[in-house]
């Protein structure tokens, strides 16, 4: 059966390819894993005992390490995961031992408008259905661990209100005296449930909870998910979980999951989730899918543990950072690499002609709405103007000391003249530039990209952090704002300023990393500003403390932690063939 | 290592036993399953492709089928699951090919006060940790399928409020016009989260959902869980899901998941969950753990599919019904057996001296509080008085045409004279009676029980339903109230009466089963009335329609679908050994 992405939907390609996929045991053995390091989940997926494998592989040569990032995306995404998988497949065609790591797709987008996030066309991860639904249950475990903390906190608030100290002492409880106006976390659910964004809980009598304002966020925005992505081992994860700040007491002191005696039980939900999940590309290369934190509020990277494993197993290990280089790559560069001790040998910067046209002044691109004419016919003016955005991202990557490889993720509507123009502009700015047709042709379409990556990896890398951890918080924020985003300055709300000063005084600012929260739809904080915005100031509205995950989060503009489900969501087209049990309609 | 339940906690026994447990492949092969019918989840658990296995086993001899039920329990439970597992182990000691089926424990009790529900002492299911946490993810899949329906409904209500018909038509939506005052379902979470029992959702602007009252229930109280337990195959499950009534429109018509176009996607969450999970007893007999519906509001039985499989694989298949015989067995008898086509060859009625003393007038038994003296020293007066409750349950089972086997689930504090008294009273009432020490001694302690079961299975059974489906709804309710619960009559609220009349007119009452919702803590609707209450009337406050699951639910008294977390819950004592990854503190 010939697989033609122009005539087939992603799930149809995946379903056909799954007929011939490698048994998981063979895939793992080819990657160099031993039987006792594998926990199979049926014949198509497995978890890998990271601790066993890493202990055995201690001292093994380190693979070349490649990060894939992108320009400022349209709401449709620029095919970053597709390019990651295409590159893995291309290196596979060239006979390289290659391994990859991507984030687990969230149920929110999968059932809403954007669809799953397992690549597309002939550059996909399979099996598609478990990747999109259920998988090995990691996101559910994160959801449950998170909600257990909320159960513990709200029940404790109720009991402390209802009982005096003597009665609390019978249950060996000391009064935590949580300030209901300073609760720091809400509940988690992995769907786009806008109706749960802002809720009032605990209504009813004195045994019906503690009445207060609350809300749900996407599970992938949970600090627990961020912890899963940055933990280096189970001990580290256990400690991070215990340090999650859930609220402040009436005296202003932190209240943690440890104070609620719920940190051990939360960790119990994560003892399997910490093991990376192994799947494969359409062409049979191994890919870890592990952790899926949001990139706008959390770190937005696949797990450190998966990269630790992947860089010990192959010659090349490809990882992916969420959203554009201003967000995803900046956090990869200054947070993830600092925490993991790994540094990249090459960085791929994905661009599409469609997104460049949007940045050049094309009409708004909206999920679920057909593209305007400008996007499907040649328009060199829009492309050239839009390259300003590409140049900004090239500059960002170059500041890390790595020469970026611009990869034009080709669509069949792109004109050759448009592609040539982008290559010329990117090369003039000091980047390598390639065009890649992995969506249409799989690994064979990504050979130019794969060769550029190999070349770059053979050159010396001068990777260095943007800032040192001794730099005070506000100075760091200003540096990121100016050097990465291109702002001319930073302003703070009174509340954010007070928090910044307190964090600096408490020396948090130098012990924890800085994880900026900003829209992915612009280099600035304003999603409407496309291209390369100039003459603007970054407003910091709040500063959150993710003490467990290990960073403070300065919030620029407004960040939504619970997206909404649209009026024509993907779930309407998903169904099951009751004869075969196969799921249809995923994309 | 000698395993002594008097000196070890359940998780310590389980952990020791897991060192020597059978690999899942061998367990399955001994049960008669083929490799390609198994989906291993690591080396200790597997799902079974029910469809493949049942197709191959079509025509195989049917095993003897045994249901385990109990007297009216204390809040601590009477060891029904422990006895089920003890009986399986006892039959194993006698060399019988035996298989069992129990419900999956809910995260609510596991992390709250009651603990896990995988047996206890030397009669347990292993591996304990996955049984208590995560498992194969079935409950999470039920939660997600359920909440996806809520996302679909609340988003639809928002869009219909915000957009006119022309705009809705662009998304191919017709106006459903859901009446916000007649929404039938809430959200699901598998914890005891009393703060989410009664909430106000959709607060904020017009894009923040639809503002209305709502609430969460335990996932195990969800109709989706009930459907998982009664579905006979995937096609049947798909159809049942589509018929779930989520609300009524302003004209009074039903609005279903099918109307929301979410039934297919909900089913996609359940394509793996429909396959039963295979684990083992401490002594290596196979046990299916599948579905976990509440017994007070839903059907409270392990799945029909697990029983279909188990009765084709062994000589004896043991299944379990939730709560006392008035609830669990009555639903097994008149709902599950009618839907499955199976009928029991024997019924075991579990009693404890502790519960009989409570029914005889002993002080209240409360979870988390030490037992009063009456419960740990000989007190024949309390036991004899409490046997009134046992006699009521014997009568219930006898009405099904099966002679019950009363099993005294022995505790080390029981006096021999107390046990002898119960045996005499049970035998005088026409039951078999045995005392069983499986908690202390495992299968060796349950030989008398196993032999009584074998004897009973060799006698002819005269199993018959209490009522015919042609019997009108109110007549059926009255029959159950009088014949099973011992009420002298039934009253209805105006609302319930109107619903009953409408259901009878729509002939729902004769197409759907009747699944009573009543407290498990009394034969009556009042949890305070112990023993065998007389001279009381059953009040029906509401009648719910679970059209997908296939029954109407007359609600007697008040039923709580979201329990509360206590002040000294189990999660405080659960932790992880970060060196080994083992979970500690489960019970």
TrEMBL record, chains A, B:
InterPro entries on file: Formate_THF_ligase, Formate_THF_ligase_CS, P-loop_NTPase
GO-annotated biological processes: tetrahydrofolate interconversion
Signal peptide per UniProt: none
UniProt keyword Ligase present: yes
Catalytic function, reaction form: (6S)-5,6,7,8-tetrahydrofolate + formate + ATP = (6R)-10-formyltetrahydrofolate + ADP + phosphate
Gene Ontology terms for molecular function: ATP binding; formate-tetrahydrofolate ligase activity
Gene from which the chain derives: fhs
EC number: 6.3.4.3
Pfam families: FTHFS
Family the UniProt entry places it in: Belongs to the formate--tetrahydrofolate ligase family.
The protein's name in its UniProt record: Formate--tetrahydrofolate ligase
Lineage: Bacteria, Pseudomonadati, Planctomycetota, Phycisphaerae, Sedimentisphaerales
Enzyme's top EC category: ligase
Pathway(s) this gene product operates in, as recorded in its UniProt entry: One-carbon metabolism; tetrahydrofolate interconversion
Keywords: ATP-binding, Ligase, Nucleotide-binding, One-carbon metabolism
Residues at which ATP binds: 74-81
Record HAMAP family: FTHFS
């Amino acid at each position: 059966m010939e697989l033609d992405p122009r005539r087939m939907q992603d799930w149809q390609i995946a379903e056909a390819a799954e007929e011939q996929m490698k048994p998981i045991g063979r895939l793992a053995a080819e990657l160099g894993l031993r039987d006792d390091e594998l926990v199979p989940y049926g014949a198509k997926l497995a978890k890998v005992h990271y601790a066993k494998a890493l202990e055995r592989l201690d001292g093994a040569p380190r693979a070349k390490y490649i990060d894939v990032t992108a320009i400022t995306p349209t709401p449709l995404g620029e095919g970053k995961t597709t390019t990651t998988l295409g590159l893995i497949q291309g290196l596979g065609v060239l006979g390289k031992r290659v391994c990859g790591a991507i984030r687990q797709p969230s149920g929110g987008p999968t059932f809403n408008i954007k669809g799953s996030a397992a690549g597309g066309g002939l550059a996909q991860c399979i099996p598609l259905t478990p990747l999109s639904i259920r998988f090995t249950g990691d996101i559910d475990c994160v959801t449950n661990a998170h909600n257990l903390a909320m159960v513990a906190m709200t029940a404790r608030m109720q009991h402390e209100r209802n009982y005096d100290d003597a009665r609390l002492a019978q249950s060996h409880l000391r009064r935590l005296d949580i300030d209901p106006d300073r609760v720091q976390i809400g509940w988690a659910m992995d769907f786009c449930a806008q109706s749960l964004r802002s809720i009032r809980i605990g209504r009813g009598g004195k045994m019906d909870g503690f009445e207060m304002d609350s809300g749900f966020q996407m599970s992938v925005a949970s600090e627990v998910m961020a912890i899963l992505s940055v933990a280096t081992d189970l001990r580290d994860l256990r400690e991070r979980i215990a340090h999650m700040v859930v609220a402040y007491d009436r005296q202003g002191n932190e209240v943690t999951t440890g104070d609620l005696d719920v940190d051990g039980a939360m960790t119990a939900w994560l003892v399997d989730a910490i093991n990376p999940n192994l799947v494969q590309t359409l062409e049979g290369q191994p890919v870890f899918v592990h952790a899926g934190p949001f990139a706008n509020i959390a770190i937005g990277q696949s797990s450190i543990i998966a990269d630790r494993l992947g860089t010990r197993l192959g010659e090349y290990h490809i990882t992916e950072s969420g959203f554009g280089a201003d967000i995803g790559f900046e956090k990869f560069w200054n947070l993830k690499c600092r925490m993991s001790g790994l540094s990249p040998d090459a960085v791929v910067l994905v661009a599409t002609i469609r997104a460049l046209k949007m940045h050049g002044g094309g009409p708004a691109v909206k999920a679920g709405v057909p593209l305007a004419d400008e996007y499907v016919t040649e328009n060199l003016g829009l492309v050239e103007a839009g390259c300003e955005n590409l140049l900004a991202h090239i500059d960002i990557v170059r500041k890390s000391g790595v020469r970026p490889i611009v990869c034009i993720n080709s669509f069949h509507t792109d004109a050759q003249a448009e592609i040539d123009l982008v290559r010329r502009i990117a090369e003039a700015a000091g980047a390598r530039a390639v065009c890649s047709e992995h969506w249409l042709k799989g690994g064979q379409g990504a050979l130019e990209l794969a060769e550029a990556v190999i070349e770059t990896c053979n050159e010396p890398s001068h990777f260095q952090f943007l800032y040192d951890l001794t730099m005070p918080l506000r100075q760091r924020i200003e540096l990121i704002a100016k050097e990465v985003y291109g702002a001319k300055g930073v302003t703070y709300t009174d509340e954010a300023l007070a928090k910044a000063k307190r964090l600096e005084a408490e020396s948090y600012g130098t012990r924890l990393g800085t994880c900026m929260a900003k829209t992915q739809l612009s280099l600035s904080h304003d999603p409407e500003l496309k291209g390369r915005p100039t003459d603007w100031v970054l407003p910091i509205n709040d500063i959150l403390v993710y003490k467990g995950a290990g960073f403070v989060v300065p919030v620029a503009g407004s960040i939504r932690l619970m997206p909404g489900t649209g009026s024509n969501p993907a779930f309407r087209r998903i169904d099951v063939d009751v004869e075969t049990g196969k799921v249809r309609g995923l994309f």
